[in-house]
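Dear H.,

Thanks for agreeing to be a second pair of eyes. The structure we're designing against is below in token form, covering all 476 positions.
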């Protein structure tokens, strides 16, 4: 199947001995004959049915030299159909469509997963001659019950679609039309929740097309990331929020619509609304709502922190703009703080569990500090630790937020600042790497009302030139 080290490039034909063992198995020659006869007699018809309903750009041929994992599964499905059935164009087309709906799943990215899907296709092939009938039979349920992978949900969806088509053939065209959407790619279970009638389904599909382009949310729904923010606003469980992928892109939306029932239900409910205007109004209301999330413990302070984190993620579209541009789409614990971060990076991190971002923004506004690591136009600052700087004539005042809980403000001993030798500095304001500094605990600020109190304290202790003991009074 693959060459050395599972690489296609390393595959070499080294004699017939490797294949000879296959012919010891019963019916191998007969099945090979059926397959080759079927291909010979129906090649053109088969080739026309190979493309998934959502794509006409894939020109893969049965006898192409190169073949990927999905095409291997597809090739197996073709040979199994020809071994088990007399060729019927419509029945074959139905079979291939169901197979494509399974194998297009984005999680088919490894050989082990591919082999598992091949096993499932082999089991399904018993009913490939009339796949709709097989999908509603007890035989399918036996396959579903033994599955624990993502395929389980897709098989259940295919069963539901088969039931609808058998009960009313008019459903087939509508279901195929939905499967054609480039983002959905055969997975439309979210449009079938709560057993819609055919007219309700048509309405849902029409609304879904207003929301989603082939690449993901479109127009107003991706502008300011309105749709993903509204979904985030409805999360009420901390574990769900922590596990959530906030990516507003094609790959993540495929997974959200396939894997997360709460997202499926959310989109389904949107698609039941009257029109696009009503949908937009509903989303805009949700991103302004108060967080109802629980915490990782039942402590009141923890619940407040969880709500603070949660609220920032759906109310601040500028933060979302930065997150999406950087790929910072996952939450992560580090040094007892919670960050939104880009996986496998060390710098695209923003702490969300404290108020240090708001404190820094107030300091910039009040005192004229500048920041080199601001998150574009969002009032957030990347890094597990960061600093603000304010240049004076002979020295630079630095505000340094560490990654634990402290804010130090003063003049660093970095060779960039000069303080008169005659200046007497209180021992409480001396620390290695600093000529003079004041120290504050930013972690003690637990709500926005406490920020002005800290800012006024900094104003008095650092910037008030007339107040004895302040930094500017001491060094000027």
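And this is the sequence the design step returned. I haven't edited it by hand at all.
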């Amino acid at each position: 199947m693959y060459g050395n080290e599972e690489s296609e490039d390393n595959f070499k034909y080294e004699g017939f001995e490797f294949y000879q063992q296959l012919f010891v198995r019963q019916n191998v020659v007969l099945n090979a004959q059926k397959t080759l006869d079927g291909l010979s007699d129906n090649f053109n018809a088969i080739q026309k049915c190979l493309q998934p309903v959502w794509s006409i750009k894939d020109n893969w041929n049965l006898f192409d030299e190169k073949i990927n994992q999905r095409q291997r599964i597809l090739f197996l499905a073709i040979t199994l159909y020809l071994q088990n059935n007399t060729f019927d164009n419509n029945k074959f087309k139905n079979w291939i469509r169901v197979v494509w709906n399974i194998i297009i799943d984005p999680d088919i990215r490894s050989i082990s997963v591919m082999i598992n899907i091949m096993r499932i296709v082999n089991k399904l092939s018993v009913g490939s001659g009339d796949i709709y009938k097989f999908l509603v039979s007890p035989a399918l349920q036996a396959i579903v019950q033994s599955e624990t992978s993502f395929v389980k949900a897709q098989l259940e969806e295919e069963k539901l679609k088969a039931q609808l088509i058998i009960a009313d053939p008019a459903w087939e065209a509508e279901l195929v039309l939905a499967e054609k959407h480039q983002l959905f790619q055969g997975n439309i279970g979210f449009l079938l929740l709560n057993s819609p009638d055919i007219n309700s389904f048509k309405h849902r599909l029409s609304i879904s097309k207003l929301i989603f382009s082939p690449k993901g949310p479109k127009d107003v729904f991706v502008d300011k990331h309105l749709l993903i923010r509204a979904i985030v606003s409805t999360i009420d469980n901390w574990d769900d929020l922590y596990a959530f992928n906030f990516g507003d892109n094609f790959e993540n939306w495929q997974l959200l619509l396939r894997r997360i029932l709460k997202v499926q239900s959310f989109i389904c409910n949107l698609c039941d609304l009257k029109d696009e205007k009503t949908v937009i109004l509903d989303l805009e209301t949700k991103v302004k709502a108060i967080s109802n999330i629980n915490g990782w413990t039942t402590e009141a302070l923890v619940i407040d922190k969880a709500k603070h984190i949660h609220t920032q993620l759906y109310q601040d579209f500028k933060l979302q703009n930065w997150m999406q541009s950087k790929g910072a789409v996952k939450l992560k614990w580090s040094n007892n703080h919670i960050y939104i971060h880009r996986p496998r990076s060390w710098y695209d991190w923003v702490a969300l569990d404290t108020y240090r971002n708001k404190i820094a923004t107030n300091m910039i506004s009040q005192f004229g500090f500048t920041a080199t690591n601001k998150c574009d136009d969002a009032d957030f600052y990347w890094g597990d630790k960061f600093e603000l700087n304010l240049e004076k004539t002979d020295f630079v005042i630095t505000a340094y937020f560490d990654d634990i809980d402290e804010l130090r403000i003063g003049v660093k001993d970095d060779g960039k600042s000069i303080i008169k030798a005659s200046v007497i500095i209180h021992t409480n304001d001396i620390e290695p790497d600093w000529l003079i500094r004041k120290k504050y605990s930013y972690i003690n600020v637990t709500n926005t009302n406490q920020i002005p109190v800290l800012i006024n304290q900094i104003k008095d202790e650092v910037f008030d030139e007339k107040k004895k003991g302040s930094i500017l009074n001491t060094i000027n």
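Two observations from my side: The longest strand covers residues 434-441. The beta strands are 212-213, 216-217, 330-334, 337-341, 349-351, 370-371, 386-391, 396-401, 406-412, 434-441.

Warmly,
E.
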